[in-house]
Amino acid sequence: MPKHIMVTGAAGFIGNALTLRLIGRGDTVVGVDSLNDYYPVALKQARLARIPAGPGFRFEHRDIADRASMAALFAKEHFDVVVNLAAQAGVRYSLVNPHAYVDSNIVGFVNLLEGCRHTGVGHLVFASSSSVYGLNETQPFSEHDNVDHPISLYAASKKANELMAHSYAHLFRVPCTGLRFFTVYGPWGRPDMALFLFTEGILSGQPIKVFNNGHMVRDFTYVDDIVEGVVRVIDRPPAGNPEWSGACPDPATSPGPYRVFNIGNNRAVALMHYIKVLEDCLGKKAIIDFLPMQDGDVPSTRADVSELAAATGFCPATTVEEGVSRFVKWYLEYKAVGHGGT
């Protein structure tokens, strides 16, 4: 049956792609976004312009951190599902503007939890992050691992979201699923992320910054695979784990309706290979400025996605060769139609 769904961050990279997918399958979507200027609003507006006009979508220019505004929207709409993709993103920016993360990722998230609680929302799906694994060294990362040692405020805010959601699932039986995204990339991506920055640098002949002297490994995950995972999870609200035990607590599940999944490509790629693929797609070599590791960053991320596959039947599989090629095609077309600035 079609669902009535709120997607927060609907003008963002993943939120926009998800909105298009949900409308395409017959759901009605209310897209919420504050359109803040963390990166140029023109890109967010261009994403919104991709969504066809019609009864399947309505945009609400709201900030999830505004308690009264969000309470009014929940009371008016009575959503079946809420997907929270609105957040202050970026590990490095959290080192210089921590309050932005508290406002959006903590205050905003509790406003969503309260809305779900008081209006009987059937499922809250929310974006967490691979950043929560922090100082963990055992890889691939499993949802059953302890994640008590984040190394940035961004990561800590995502861990806090998981804890907050668990408490609402336990106390108020709000079904909640957290999704730990691993390095998402693809067309219409964020201009503060590596692929966008590398592409701009290579094409302009400017050096690109490569941290940890290039010794980085990432589970790069194509945006369409992320969206497929989110859609499958939306349709499968958790019911609780009857075998959960407080004597040996499993961080990924709960007696209440709560679950956490990784969504990663399950085939980690060396950063220098990623850059080589991009060079091949652009037909131009990068000038590389090798730098030390940045605070808040980690040298490697690898996702164990066996739980996602078992629960939904889906395992991300887009190669970086496919995904980077699609990004470059989009980027060149986007610039060619007059989007000079990012």
Explain what the structure shows.
By secondary structure, the chain is of the alpha/beta class. The longest helix is centred in the N-terminal third of the chain and has 22 residues, at 98-119. The strands form four sheets. The chain has a seven-stranded parallel beta sheet with strand order 3-2-1-4-5-6-11, with helices on both faces. It is built from ten helices and 13 strands.
Shape descriptor reads: globular
Identify low-pLDDT runs.
none
Q: Total number of helical segments?
A: 10
Run of helices and strands:
EHEHEHEHEHEEHEEEHEEHEHH
The helix content is 25-40%
Please tell me how large the radius of gyration is. Answer: 19 Å
Mean pLDDT, nearest integer? 95
The percentage of residues in β strands lies in 15-25%
| Main structural class | alpha/beta
Largest sheet: 7 strands, parallel
Q: Tell me the span between the first and last alpha carbons.
A: 39 Å
Task: Please count the beta strands (DSSP E, at least 2 residues each).
Answer: 13
* Spatial strand sequence of the major β-sheet: 3-2-1-4-5-6-11
Topology:
Elements: E1 4-8, H1 13-24, E2 28-33, H2 41-49, E3 57-61, H3 67-77, E4 81-84, H4 98-119, E5 123-129, H5 153-172, E6 176-181, E7 184-185, H6 194-204, E8 208-210, E9 217-218, E10 221-222, H7 223-234, E11 258-263, E12 269-270, H8 271-282, E13 288-290, H9 306-312, H10 320-336
Helix pairs in contact: 1-7, 3-4, 4-5, 6-8, 8-10
